[in-house]
Design a protein that fits this description.
Blueprint (H helix, E strand, L loop, with lengths): L10 H16 L4 H5 L7 H10 L1 H27 L5 H18 L1 H4 L6
Length: 114
């Protein structure tokens, strides 16, 4: 039988996976990156977990919002780092700003005057 991801996540293993997902999201790690890590559920499994567990869905939303704040802090660190080439800084910062603007429009989205 080929090695692969477990198809069923239950009990303590499920709870540890959920904790790991929430922790990493709150640090600004994208869900797709988390799902590719060894020992983590696939992205489809995570989406099913969100669909089936309201508390987990709420925790994911809150952690994702916190993660955008971490990414904003990364932008400042990158901009202030004298060892990073300015051209690379721009790409690194712009990428993060675009993502957090989409992921957390409430705080970081472009405001349109009506």
């Amino acid at each position: 039988m080929p090695a692969g991801r477990p198809k069923i996540w239950v009990g303590e293993k499920l709870e540890k996976a959920k904790e790991g997902i929430i922790e990493q999201l709150s640090l600004g790690v994208p869900m797709g990156t988390i799902a590719k890590q060894e020992g983590m559920p696939s992205i489809m499994q995570i989406w099913r977990m969100e669909r089936d567990d309201e508390k987990f869905r709420e925790d994911v939303a809150r952690a994702s919002e916190q993660g955008t704040n971490m990414m904003a802090a990364q932008c400042i660190e990158i901009a202030d780092d004298p060892d990073i080439d300015p051209k690379n800084k721009r790409v690194m910062v712009d990428t993060r700003l675009k993502l957090i603007g989409k992921w957390n429009r409430k705080i970081y989205g472009d405001k349109l005057d009506q």
